[in-house]
Amino acid sequence: MWTSDRPTSNTILTFGLGYLIKYFAYYFLTGMVLLTFAILLTGYLNSVGPKMPFLEYFSFILPKNQRESGSWGEGDLMRLYSFISTMFFLLSIVGKWIILLAKRLLHPNQDEGRLVENTLTINRTLSQIMRRILINGLIITAIHTVSLFVFPFATLPDEVNPVVIYIIFAVFYLFAMMANIVYVLLDTVSKNILDKAITFINA
Fold first, then answer.
1. Alpha-carbon distance 40 to 31, whole Å?
2. Distances in whole angstroms, Cα of residue 27 to Cα of each of 3, 20, 46, 123, 177
3. In the chain, what are the helix, strand and coil shares in percent, each to the nearest 5?
4. Is residue 137 classed exposed, middle or buried when 0-12, 13-18 and 19+ CB atoms within 10 A define those classes?
5. Can you tell me the mean pLDDT for 12-41?
6. Can you say whether residue 2 is alpha, beta or left, with left for phi > 0 and alpha for psi between -120 and 50 degrees?
7. What is the mean pLDDT of the chain?
8. CB-based contacts of 4: which residues, under 8 Å, 6+ apart?
9. Rounded Cα–Cα distance for residues 87 and 109 (Å)
10. DSSP letters along 165-190, please?
11. Residue 1 pLDDT
């Protein structure tokens, strides 16, 4: 319960910092997802062709004139990138508070257990970071591996050098793994900061 202006100010600032870091973290998550999706999209284009009707589901993001023309420029892609990042961010906030409220309703007298849980979480932070990086990395690796196995069976135009495609695969894989690491680190920092803000509320 807030008993003075100082805890209230600390709580607001701590929540703000935590959510700011989390927002940046989800930009890296979006980068990781889109880079991995790009590999799948490359396989799709080589196998099926240039038609991508599923992009119509994102047409509401575009201005009306571009919706009619069906063209996507750099600004449109950045708008889509920001939209996806913001949606990830908002969904994570809503999900976090739903879980927190559910725990409070189901276990209203769990303050001591929460303190013990927070202590154990701090002790396990490094192992949790490594586990999350490993799990995400395995998913990224699996998708790239499947795409690499499918790619040799695709028919490429004569002017396309297969070596260049493999280099692009490698670069996308490298950047996706880097985005994975940065995302997990930033998300862990934001989680610890937000947990601290919640302790201000419980104090």
1. 14
2. 36, 11, 28, 27, 14
3. 85, 0, 15
4. middle
5. 88
6. beta
7. 75
8. none
9. 33
10. HHHHHHHHHHHHHHHHHHHHHHHHHH
11. 42
Over residues 129-152, the pLDDT tens digits come to 899 999 999 999 998 888 777 766
The total number of residues written for the chain in this structure: 203
Tokens 């990138």 belong to residue:
81
Q: Is 169 left (phi over 0), alpha (psi -120 to 50) or beta?
A: alpha
Whole-angstrom Cα distance, residue 91 to residue 155?
Answer: 40
| Predicted pLDDT of residue 39 | 82
| Residue 170 Ramachandran class (φ > 0 left, ψ -120 to 50 alpha, else beta) | alpha
Look-up: residue for tokens 């701590």?
14
| Distance between start and end Cα atoms, the chain | 6
Q: What is the largest CA-CA distance in the chain?
A: 73
Each residue's pLDDT tens digit, 104-119: 777 666 554 454 344 4
Residue 126, C-beta contacts closer than 8 angstroms, at least 6 positions apart: none
**pLDDT > 70 fraction of the chain, expressed in percent and rounded:** 63
